[in-house]
C-alpha cells in the first residue's frame, strides 16, 4: 500500500496497486496512453539505470564500431 496526497484537498488516502490498475482500466484508451506516456517519462531515468547495470561495459574504439556498422550495412 502507498499513500497518495491530493494537493487540492490535502486528503491522505491509502491506495493499492490493484486499485490504481482498476481505475486505469476504467479510462479510455487515449487516456491510458496519456498516462502511460507520463509514467514512461517520469520513470525513464530509473529504468535506464537498472538496464545499464545489466549490460556489459566494454571499451571499443571508433574504428571497431565502424567495422561492425560496415559489416551489418554491407552484408
**What's the total count of β strands?**
2
- Unreliable stretches (pLDDT < 50, length at least 5) are none
What portion of residues is helical? 55-70%
> SSE string, helix = H, strand = E?
EEHHH
Radius of gyration: 21 Å
Counting structural domains, the number is 1
Shape estimate: elongated
Instruction: List the strand order in the largest sheet.
Output: 1-2
Given helix and strand content, the structural type is alpha+beta
Number of helices: 3
For the sheet with most strands, the description reads: 2 strands, antiparallel
**Amount of beta strand:** 5-15%
Distance, first to last CA: 53 Å
Can you describe what's shown?
This protein has 75 residues and is α+β, with helices and mostly antiparallel strands. The chain has one domain (2-57). Helix content is 65%, strand content 13%. It contains 3 helices and 2 strands, in the order E-E-H-H-H. Strands 1-2 form a two-stranded antiparallel sheet. It is elongated.
What does the secondary structure layout of this molecule look like, with pairings?
Blueprint lengths: L1 E5 L4 E5 L1 H10 L2 H26 L7 H13 L1
Amino acid at each position: 500500500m502507498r499513500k497518495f496526497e491530493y494537493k487540492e484537498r490535502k486528503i491522505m488516502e491509502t491506495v493499492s496497486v490493484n486499485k490504481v490498475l482498476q481505475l486505469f482500466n476504467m479510462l479510455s484508451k487515449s487516456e491510458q496512453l496519456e498516462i502511460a506516456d507520463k509514467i514512461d517519462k517520469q520513470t525513464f531515468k530509473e529504468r535506464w539505470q537498472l538496464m545499464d547495470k545489466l549490460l556489459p561495459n566494454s571499451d571499443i574504439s571508433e574504428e571497431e564500431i565502424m567495422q561492425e556498422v560496415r559489416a551489418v550495412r554491407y552484408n
